[in-house]
Write a structure and sequence with these properties.
Layout: E1 2-5, E2 11-15, E3 18-22, E4 30-31, E5 40-43, E6 55-58, H1 68-73, E7 80-82, H2 84-92, E8 98-100, E9 106-109, E10 113-123, E11 127-136, E12 142-145, E13 163-166, E14 170-173, E15 177-181, H3 182-193, E16 197-200, E17 207-210, H4 212-216, E18 218-220, H5 223-232, E19 238-239, E20 247-249
């Protein structure tokens, strides 16, 4: 298994000899609803769009997960798997092979990688977006991804998973509450899934943010704190901080069975 962290929520996953582009924001700024004064993300280092993509995987329909300027640069013939809301975004952009997954539904990529949608982040009072479990079907390798730190209790029945790609910090807006609740939830999901590796996502990378919202955000948690917590829970899990833009191999010591 090889991974490349592309900043924010974006990853290139190489599993089962397939290349999966996850929640890509790779070109242009990150702005919600044209409100750059409220929140705007910019890259310090340009990220080239990866080649030979077998699948685009989208967890949410929001701009930081289904980024329209990036999706407009990609080949519309690439298959896409996403939440119901993400599927609406890519269909509106002209993608031709789109599979929307509700919670509990699965998609198998070329008989090599099975992708299961699980409940993820709540967006408002009525919508819950997707997290994903990816499993290599012919060998060792499984991944759980959820970008905001909302982990469904249904994961207790998932068995052990090798790699967790989850946030490890809290990002909160005073009086409004958490945007990301990684610090509050990562220890619990690690105890459920007993991973070999945790890779922080969502609140990192070679990016800078500006705007009114950024000025009031409060961050809590760190890699060091998580390592101490895992050790206190007798978990041998490694916490790896990936270098943005650098491909690296995740060395798994044994096959984790579900």
């Amino acid at each position: 298994m090889y991974l490349t962290y592309l900043d924010s929520n974006s990853w290139l996953i190489e599993i089962g000899e397939k290349r999966i582009l996850l929640d890509p924001w790779l070109v242009g700024p990150l702005v919600f609803g044209g409100l750059g004064w409220l929140f705007k993300g910019q890259r310090r280092t340009p990220r080239p769009i990866p080649e030979n993509i077998d699948l685009i995987l989208l967890s949410q329909g929001l701009t930081d997960h289904a980024h329209p300027p990036t999706l407009e640069k990609l080949d519309r013939a690439i298959p896409v798997v996403g939440s119901v809301e993400a599927a609406k975004v890519v269909r509106s952009l002209g993608y031709t092979q789109v599979t929307a997954l509700a919670h509990g539904e699965t998609f198998t990529l070329d008989n090599t990688v099975k992708i299961e949608a699980v409940p993820g982040s709540p967006i408002g009072p009525l919508l819950v977006e997707n997290g994903y479990i990816l499993r290599e079907l012919s060998g060792n390798g499984s991944i759980y991804y959820e970008p905001h730190g909302y982990h469904s209790p249904s994961l207790k029945d998932a068995g052990s998973i090798d790699v967790l790609m989850v946030p490890i910090v809290n990002l909160k807006v005073p009086l409004l509450g958490p945007i990301i609740q990684g610090r509050d939830s990562v220890s619990e999901v690690a105890q459920w899934l007993e991973p070999q590796v945790i890779l922080p996502t969502a609140a990192g990378g070679d990016v800078e943010f500006e705007g009114v919202l950024v000025k009031v955000l409060q961050q809590q948690g760190s890699v060091e704190e998580l390592r101490e917590t895992l050790d206190g829970n007798n978990l041998k899990t490694q916490v790896i901080e990936p270098t943005p833009g650098e491909r690296f191999e995740v060395n798994l010591t044994e096959v984790q069975s579900s």
